Amino acid sequence: MEHISYFKLQAKILLKDYKTRYFNEEKKFYCYHPNHFDIGGLFLYYEYPDQDENFSFTLMNAQHLIAKMVGYDKWEDLIHASESEQELAEFLLNRFRDSQDIQNWEETLSFTGLDRYRTEAAESVLEYARQYYELEEREQIVRLPTDRITVLSGKQRKEALMQFDDEHNPSGLLRTDSVVYCSHCRQSFVFSKSKVIKDKETNLTMVVCKNYPNCKNTYLDLKVLTPTILYGDERMKILEEDIQGRLPHIEIDSKVRCLHCGEEYSYKEAKVVFSPDDHEEHIHCKNYPQCDGLSFDLIKVDD
Up-side HSE of residue 57: CA atoms within 13 Å toward CB? Predict the structure, then answer.
């Protein structure tokens, strides 16, 4: 369905929910019996005076409210938005039923800083929204009846854990060899021992505690107990920040020698390790954990 047609349909549904309005004699205020939107909650959130007996709500008002729900000041702004912005608006509107849904999304977006780029980079926000809501759906499958769940094993389980590392753990703080603690069943285990479950109906997978189904915790609830080696962009970011701060005499491609093990190598080969004790990243010798040398143990080797 074309985006604008979809928005118009939602406005009509919103108006239909409004028309369930009735005056509750016992409570002495107007109530609703909506089928789709929590119309009373939305009016309260956006400060609509619906408790006024002279309050009226038209299709035009409904269109205006639909636009406000997805971040626009008025209906005209929404229908004249770019294709990617309208695609994002439709995606969100599919998931907004009450004011709490909207508030949760707005707070999440603000926390990430993406709200500043809503217009300039709607595609990036849409990609983030897809990951955010899919993760929310994945988290819920742990609560489903066990007869609807398949516990993966063998190659399928291994591939799912690898996908977890690639898609849901971008910072690299949680690795398959990390020792983790589950606060629900109070057990520690190597993360690679976690179970991977799959919803038979949606095919969504989720990494859960190794004691599933007796324990309903997901990987989001696990606490990392051991130092974790970082990889990828996060690792390079920490190395470059260390050069700018404590090691201005060293460049990323400089040849260095570790005073502990004596090995020479390029500084960019050093390891970055996240410590759960102080929640800080530390730069270690490339031979960590066999060598416990830190960044201040590295000296630049003259070419």
Answer: 26
Residue finishing a domain among 79, 106, 132? 132
- CA separation for the pair 160, 141 (Å, rounded): 15
Q: What is the mean pLDDT of residues 149-174?
A: 76
Tens digits of per-residue pLDDT, 181-217? 888 898 888 888 999 999 999 898 999 999 999 999 9
**Taking every pair of C-alpha atoms in the chain, what is the biggest distance, in angstroms?**
88
State how far the Cα of 236 lies from the Cα of 115, in Å rounded to an integer.
26
> Is the preceding omega at residue 145 within 30 degrees of 0, hence cis?
no
Let me know whether 241 and 160 are in one domain: no
What is this structure's pTM?
A: 0.56
3-class SS of residue 264: strand
β-pairing verdict for 255-258 and 22-24: unpaired
